[in-house]
């Protein structure tokens, strides 16, 4: 089954974990914008240097930079052939609109958006437990707020476009994944 998926949920909602399970069973290419940015930081590329200050402060990288990076990735042959599963993008409505327009130009569309719903308390506990270098308590709190403001309108956006599927993200991993599979296997 080749589809174009979007994973939605605040940082710590478990998108990455579910993404790993999905790619083991389905052909879609997992594209994490956070991972791409981190790889560019590590390799000290021009893109990484542009993104660094925003990422260090826990802010979103400007849309212009992020959209161009995503557009470039989506035109690569593995994605064209197998479809995609976007993780961490779009993060705001402008990015969502850019993506829709980009896909329309390529005679494609978003097949489904999986929204992993998790309470704030659980999110903070999970992020603190992850121990990434940018996961200090202050940065986490700030990142949650920034992401909430930008991210929650996306839930409305995709609901209006009739592609939203809400998944309870607080259960055990296998139960969550079995709910994900039910959604994916039900897509036309
Ligand atoms: P993540 O691993 O998804 O939390 O991403 C880590 C950091 O990369 C974020 O805090 C942002 O600075 C940047 N980033 C990742 N995805 C996006 C996006 N869609 N738009 C803007 N910035 C992003």
TrEMBL record:
InterPro entries: Adenylat/UMP-CMP_kin, Adenylat_kinase_CS, P-loop_NTPase. Monomer. It comes from Fructobacillus durionis. AMP binds at residues 33, 38, 59-61, 88-91, 95, 132, 143. It is found in: Cytoplasm. ATP binds at residues 12-17, 130, 171. GO terms for cellular component: cytoplasm. Keywords: ATP-binding, Cytoplasm, Kinase, Nucleotide biosynthesis, Nucleotide-binding, Transferase. NCBIfam families: PRK00279.1-3, PRK14527.1, PRK14531.1. Pathway: Purine metabolism; AMP biosynthesis via salvage pathway; AMP from ADP: step 1/1. SUPFAM superfamilies: P-loop containing nucleoside triphosphate hydrolases. GO terms for molecular function: AMP kinase activity; ATP binding. It comes from the Bacteria. This is Adenylate kinase. It catalyses: AMP + ATP = 2 ADP. Belongs to the adenylate kinase family. Its EC number is 2.7.4.3. The lineage of its organism: Bacteria, Bacillati, Bacillota, Bacilli, Lactobacillales. Consists of three domains, a large central CORE domain and two small peripheral domains, NMPbind and LID, which undergo movements during catalysis. The LID domain closes over the site of phosphoryl transfer upon ATP binding. Assembling and dissambling the active center during each catalytic cycle provides an effective means to prevent ATP hydrolysis. Residues 32-61 are annotated as: NMP. Catalyzes the reversible transfer of the terminal phosphate group between ATP and AMP. Plays an important role in cellular energy homeostasis and in adenine nucleotide metabolism. Pfam families: ADK (PF00406). GO terms for biological process: AMP salvage.
